[in-house]
Design goal:
- With 326 residues, the chain is α/β, with parallel strands linked by helices.
- The chain contains 9 helices and 12 strands.
- The chain has a single domain, classed as Alpha-Beta Barrel (TIM Barrel).
- The longest helix has 13 residues, at 46-58.
């Protein structure tokens, strides 16, 4: 089995593939003014995605996460899920969504082959949720999450961006929520991007501070799977649910990196906050380019840096997280 290994000995079984930059939310930490189309070439087509995933699977990718923007805005999402599911070598297909269309679509995604689901839920309070996201969709999102828990997914996880002064006091509510529900919540530390400096300085909350509270309350860190995401996951015998902490500013965060990213327009990104993209789209136009595609992926991995430059204020070419899917 082929395996991608970089110059620091890290292996890469996990690909995050953005399907669109568009999003219908106006989250205060990402797209407060809403998505603005820029008239550039269209996003990857179904056939291009099929060739792309086949290429990555050939070099050892076993887990594919479909992201956005908001991937449910693509009408062909069930076909994309089915195509990824049919790719030899791919064992896990996950989707990250804002959840606004979950009640109507989550069953279709599961039937198409989706194995895991992440849903953004930045607050358990409906009014706060609306204030953060710009949409009063709390009822639909939480209904969809309840439906998803009945469909046999390998995992249902919730993503909450930690925001000082907006939702950083909700740990007791989350603990109550997780006591009886077999879900995991991921608390994500707010990251500085190209266009959110003032917001970051006002609302950044250290994820490690929350982690210290968990440890003091008897939560214990779990062993991380080889193809798992970046979260440090915690469990407690008194709770069915689990808690993950994603702390990009913590020491050695990048040492465990195991994932690559491809943008909705077909650029390979070796790091979420990297300074360059590597165009793969020219090699997605024909099945005959498969070997050239796998060679480009493998050779470019040598350019991957040891870590990001967030501590130095270097956010790379990522203007906001919707542009690459986080």
């Amino acid at each position: 089995m082929a395996t991608l290994v970089d110059g620091f000995g890290r292996t890469f079984p996990y690909l995050r593939l953005s399907l669109t930059e568009a999003c219908n939310y106006r989250c205060s930490y990402c797209l407060p003014d809403g998505y603005q189309a820029d008239g550039r070439p269209t996003f990857l087509t179904l056939d291009e995605i099929r060739r792309l995933v086949r290429g990555f699977a050939a070099v050892g990718m076993r887990k594919i996460r479909l992201t956005g923007g908001e991937p449910s805005l693509r009408k062909d999402l069930p076909s994309i899920i089915a195509a990824v599911s049919a790719t030899p070598g791919v064992r896990k297909i996950a989707l990250t969504t804002n959840g606004c269309r979950l009640p109507q679509l989550v069953r279709t995604w599961r039937e198409a082959g989706l194995t895991a689901l992440n849903v953004s839920l930045d607050s358990l309070d409906a009014a706060r949720f609306a204030a953060i996201t710009g949409h009063d969709r709390f009822a639909e999102v939480t209904e969809g999450i309840e439906i998803a828990q009945t469909l046999g997914f390998d995992a249902v996880k919730l993503n909450a961006v930690l925001l000082r002064g907006l939702n950083d006091d909700e740990l007791p509510a989350w603990l109550n929520y997780l006591r009886t529900r077999d879900v995991a919540v991921r608390f994500i530390e707010l990251m500085r991007t190209g266009d959110n400096r003032e917001y970051f300085e006002r609302h950044h909350y250290r994820a490690e501070a929350l982690e210290e509270q968990l440890i003091a309350s008897g939560w214990t860190q779990q062993t991380r799977a080889a193809d798992a995401g970046p979260a440090r996951e915690y469990a407690h015998p008194g709770y069915r649910g689990r808690i993950g902490i994603i702390a990009p500013y913590s020491k050695d965060f990048c040492a465990g990196c195991n994932r690559l990213r491809v943008t909705a327009r077909g650029d390979l990104r070796l790091c979420l906050f990297g300074d360059f993209g590597i165009p793969l789209r020219p090699l997605l136009q024909s099945d005959a380019d498969h070997e050239a595609l796998t060679a480009r992926i493998a050779t470019q991995l040598g350019l991957k840096a040891a870590g990001h430059g967030l501590h130095q204020g270097n956010t790379g070419i990522t203007p906001h997280l919707a542009s690459i899917g986080g």
